[in-house]
Amino acid sequence: MVGIIFFYVAEDMPDLGDPNNPTNIHVSPRYIEKSMEETGTPNMVTAVLASYRGYDTLGETTVIFTAAMAAILLFQKWGK
Amino acid sequence: MKKTTKKQTESIVIRTMSRIMIPFIQLFGLYVIIHGEASPGGGFQGGVILGTSIILLAIVFDLREAERRMPWKVITAFMCVGLLIYSGIGLLDLLSGGAYLEYTKLPLPLPAHEISALSILFVEIGIGITVMAVIILLFYYLVGDQNAS
To answer: Which of B39, B80, B141 lies closest to A75 in CB terms?
Structure first.
């Protein structure tokens, strides 16, 4: 049943790789055209990662940090 | 040095080659971090490369050698300092009148996009330090050091 609904809905999805997709006309042109003058970095990936999506990258770093903290808490010998 | 020779890897080829290679691996890791804003790369990738150089040291020689070069306390400090650099830059932006992590508001005598590029460089360095420390720390735990201090 769910599969039938999926197939029915998939008819209305935009074509893959269509330049007029909503994903291709919303923020991507801004990144491609303005990232050099707004962030000063020639690398678009870094501009998006560190500047436009700075919170996301901060979260990723925090996740890694938390992993190490959990490892320390688990494996450290306390009270020796 | 006499004491550790027994536990070291037998082959002198591996030891000599890694002794030559490790500085270049670290240099390449630094290159990937510093040039992360202009070319493919960045903090995560460069941090992992820097971490693997210490892991290679621990594999080829033994864990004592790696721990002597990169003690536990230094790793833990690096881990915290990297994240502090990142969030500290965000806090500086907040103090100088912008939003959190809005780089262009820092009061420096530079055009806005260059301040942003500089901030991104420091952010990448912070990420690199944290990732390097965490990789080394997890490796130390994985090889099962019983005398972890």
So the answer is: B141
A13 belongs to a structural domain: yes
In chain A, residues with a C-beta closer than 8 Å to the C-beta of B42 are 45-46, 49-50
Q: Is residue A80 part of a domain?
A: no
Host domain of residue A36: 2-75
Chains A and B form CB pairs within 8 A to the count of 93
Per-10-residue mean pLDDT of chain B, 149 residues long, equals 52 88 92 84 88 90 84 91 91 84 77 82 91 92 66
Dist. CA A57–CA B112, nearest whole Å: 21
Q: What's the rounded Cα separation, in Å, for the pair B69 and B74? A: 10
Q: What distance in Å separates residue A6's CA from the closest CA in chain B? A: 37
**Class of residue B140 by CB neighbours under 10 A (exposed 0-12, middle 13-18, buried 19+):** buried
**Complex-level ipTM beyond the 0.85 threshold:** no
Interchain contact, A57 vs B87, CB within 8 Å: no
Q: How many domains does chain A have?
A: 1
